[in-house]
């Protein structure tokens, strides 16, 4: 499991509209090439497929979506042998600053093995994803 946190000089609304509403998570997630077959917006029950940079596809479902506050994404492949869970939580620090917490974990038998051998890459992807959320949100806030 990787937990990463940072503050952004942006409101929760700006973070949400910039990073999550467009359903173009490839803007901030360095491991995702594109989202495909997305069934809707950033809402509970929306399904999508994360097409990874290596060409693999990971079906995901959004849950615990609270506008401007949180979103979870979960999915599995190979009959549950590989599971992925992510959570983004946004909190107000003050009127112009927000805290973003980003958690990502691979589970299942396959995910556990991948987590051991690719720990550095998983940590890097999570931390870079968070940095990109901050960068994009701060740039949008300045507009």
In short:
29% of the residues lie in helices and 42% in strands. With 143 residues, the protein is α+β, with helices and mostly antiparallel strands.
Would you mind describing this structure in some detail?
The protein is α+β, with helices and mostly antiparallel strands. It has a single domain (2-142), classed as START domain (Alpha-D-Glucose-1,6-Bisphosphate, Chain A, domain 4), CATH 3.30.530.20. The protein has helices at 12-19, 108-117, 119-142; strands at 2-8, 32-36, 47-52, 57-66, 70-77, 82-94, 97-107. A seven-stranded antiparallel β-sheet has the order 1-7-6-5-4-3-2. Helix 1 (12-19) crosses helix 3. The longest helix has 24 residues, at 119-142. The chain is globular. The termini are far apart.
CATH class: Alpha Beta
Percentage of residues assigned to helices? 25-40%
Distance from first to last alpha carbon: 35 Å
Give the DSSP E fraction (strand runs of 2 or more residues): 35-45%
InterPro entries: START-like_dom_sf
